[in-house]
């Protein structure tokens, strides 16, 4: 097994950002070789100066100087790589040179010194940074060289044969033991470093997932400690609590920094005191008279010493709107079923009333019959509107919508509606789209415009020009239906396009909802604003506008002129 698995791919130099324990060990060994080379040069120069040049030969000193320079060059120029199972050239320039130089010094007995302990450096380097084979091979080479040195010296002094071979053998055994133990420790370090790297990667991935969940979570999330210091806050919490959540110098503020956040501080304090989940509906004062109602729930995370309080915040307005939408959806499904059941009996009632009306002669009876007919027609319109809600999602899902001449279609629909309601003097038509084309179904556009005109007529005054229908061209053609009615109540304005919502008891509350659904099916958008009349100055009124999608290529068409009632 290769110890250097903790390094990069074979032959690839490690970068500073990926430095491992083995990288630091490599630099440590390289620095140790430089120190050994400098010490050898200094020691030999000192002996030569004190005892004379004949004690240390010039070529031995030159060999030590060359070794020191080579060690310095290796430290500055080489970088740690994974040797793998092959004998990498880098080991020749480090371990090989060490063995050759130290063997020469030992054999020559330069300065009558014992250089065998220096073999521990290449043995350790091979054991820690190399493979098992390289570690044992380096130890074996050092042991054989020491035995060869002992044999050479025994030829000069035969009486010391046993002592020298015993000393060389014990030193060689020590090198083998050192290589084996150092290699096993290096293998353990490699496994632990690999496990630590995998753990860091998993923790980093988990942190990214947690951050992604927090950022996309619709509920606000605050993480605070026992001193009310905010450690983390997702965008939803920042929107709920306002810009004051950020400290002036950067980072997150303390919850105690804003008096309006005191309910959250009290809730966090109770959580730490009781060590249990807490929940409450609190009012957050954002300043400037703005108070936000928030539902807060807390949970304790972590051990006692480093526990953190995680607070989940929900805007009560959004929560109520979600519940209201769910209730409306359930009501819509029920209403559709009821509408289907009502339609057949209603048709029978209408038909029976028409047959009965043929035989009536007295005015009072005919008046009662007309009342039945009017209410039956009203019930029929409500039933059709309820069924339209169910039909709209299935419309406009087939082929692409056609491109309509906006001015022509609006003029045709508005003219029919004006004739039907006999309100020529109250409606003003202004066409400024100049032949712009809009992507929309003709029947759907007629339904949208009729609904908007019916709403405008319901609230408009009797003055001339009380209702205005205006088209505009440009990159995004628009249709605006304006009326001079009173301003809408804010509570009504918030729910304008919701199903079954109406400010009048005689309305089903489905007209604007159907308009919005049809617009979305064709890529258009519908909205409301309060403002002056589009075609002239004067007082403010209520304007509903539709912005249409244009086709890729616009066909030229003759512009319409302004038509006034």
UniProtKB/TrEMBL annotation:
Main localization of the protein described in the UniProt heading: membrane
Molecular function per GO: ATP binding; phosphorelay response regulator activity; phosphorelay sensor kinase activity; protein kinase activator activity
Segments traversing the membrane: 25-47, 59-78, 90-108, 115-148, 168-187
Locations listed in the record: Membrane
Gene Ontology terms: cellular component: membrane
Top-level EC class: transferase
InterPro entries named in the record: BphY/WalK/GraS-like, HATPase_C_sf, HATPase_dom, His_kinase_dom, HisK_dim/P_dom, HisK_dim/P_sf, PAS, Sig_transdc_His_kin-like_C
Keywords: ATP-binding, Kinase, Membrane, Nucleotide-binding, Phosphoprotein, Transferase, Transmembrane, Transmembrane helix, Two-component regulatory system
Entry annotated with the keyword Signal: no
Occurrences of domain Histidine kinase (ranges): 337-552
Residue intervals of the PAS domain: 213-242
Catalytic reaction equation(s): ATP + protein L-histidine = ADP + protein N-phospho-L-histidine
Enzyme Commission code(s) on record: 2.7.13.3
An example Gene Ontology biological process: osmosensory signaling via phosphorelay pathway
Protein name: histidine kinase
Organism: Ramlibacter algicola
């Amino acid at each position: 097994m290769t110890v250097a698995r903790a390094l990069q791919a074979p032959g690839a130099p490690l970068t500073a950002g990926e430095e491992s324990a083995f990288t630091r060990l490599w630099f440590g060994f390289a620095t140790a070789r430089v120190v050994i080379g400098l010490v050898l040069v200094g020691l030999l120069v000192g002996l030569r100066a004190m005892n004379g040049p004949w004690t240390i030969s010039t070529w031995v000193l030159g060999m030590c100087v060359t070794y020191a320079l080579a060690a310095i060059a290796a430290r500055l120029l080489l970088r740690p790589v994974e040797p793998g199972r092959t004998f990498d050239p880098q080991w020749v320039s480090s371990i090989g040179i060490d063995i050759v130089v130290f063997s020469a010094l030992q054999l020559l007995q330069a300065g009558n010194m014992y250089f065998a302990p220096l073999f521990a450096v290449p043995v350790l380097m091979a054991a820690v940074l190399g493979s098992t084979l390289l570690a044992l091979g380096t130890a074996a080479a050092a042991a054989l060289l020491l035995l060869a040195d002992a044999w050479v010296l025994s030829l000069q002094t035969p009486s010391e044969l046993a002592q020298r071979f015993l000393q060389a053998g014990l030193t060689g055994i020590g090198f083998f033991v050192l290589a084996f133990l150092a290699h096993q420790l290096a293998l353990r370090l490699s496994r632990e470093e690999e496990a630590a790297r995998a753990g860091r990667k998993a923790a980093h991935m988990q942190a990214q997932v947690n951050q992604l969940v927090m950022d996309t979570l619709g509920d606000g999330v605050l993480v605070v400690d026992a001193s009310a210091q905010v450690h983390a806050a997702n965008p939803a919490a920042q929107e709920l609590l306002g810009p004051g959540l950020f400290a002036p110098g950067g980072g997150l503020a303390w919850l105690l920094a804003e008096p309006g956040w005191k309910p959250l501080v009290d809730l966090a304090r109770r959580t730490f005191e009781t060590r249990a989940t807490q929940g409450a509906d609190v009012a957050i004062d954002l300043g400037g008279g703005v108070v936000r109602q928030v539902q807060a729930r807390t949970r304790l995370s972590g051990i006692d010493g480093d526990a953190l309080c995680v607070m989940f915040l929900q805007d009560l307005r959004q929560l109520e709107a979600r519940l209201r939408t769910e209730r409306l959806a359930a009501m819509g499904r029920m209403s559709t079923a009821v509408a289907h059941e009502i339609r057949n009996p209603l048709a029978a009632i209408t038909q029976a009333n028409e047959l009965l009306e043929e035989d009536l002669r007295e005015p009072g009876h005919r008046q009662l019959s007309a009342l039945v007919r009017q209410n039956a027609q009203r019930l029929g319109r409500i039933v059709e509107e309820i069924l339209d809600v169910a039909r709209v999602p299935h419309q406009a899902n087939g082929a692409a919508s056609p491109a309509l001449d906006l001015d022509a279609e609006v003029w045709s629909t508005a003219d029919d509606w004006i004739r039907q309601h006999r309100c020529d003097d109250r409606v003003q038509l202004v066409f400024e789209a100049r032949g712009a084309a809009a992507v929309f179904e003709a029947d759907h556009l007629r339904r949208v415009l009729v609904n908007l005109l019916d709403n405008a007529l319901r609230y408009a005054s009797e003055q001339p020009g009380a209702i205005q229908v205006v088209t505009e061209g440009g990159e995004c053609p628009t249709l605006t239906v304006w009326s001079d009615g009173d301003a809408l109540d804010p509570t009504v304005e918030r729910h304008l396009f919701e199903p079954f919502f109406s400010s009048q008891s005689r309305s089903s509350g489905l007209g604007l909802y159907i308009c919005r659904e049809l617009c979305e099916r064709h890529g258009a958008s519908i909205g409301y604003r309060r403002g002056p009349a589009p075609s002239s100055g004067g007082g403010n009124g209520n304007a509903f506008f539709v912005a249409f999608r244009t086709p890729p290529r616009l066909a030229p068409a003759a512009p319409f002129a302004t038509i006034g009632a």
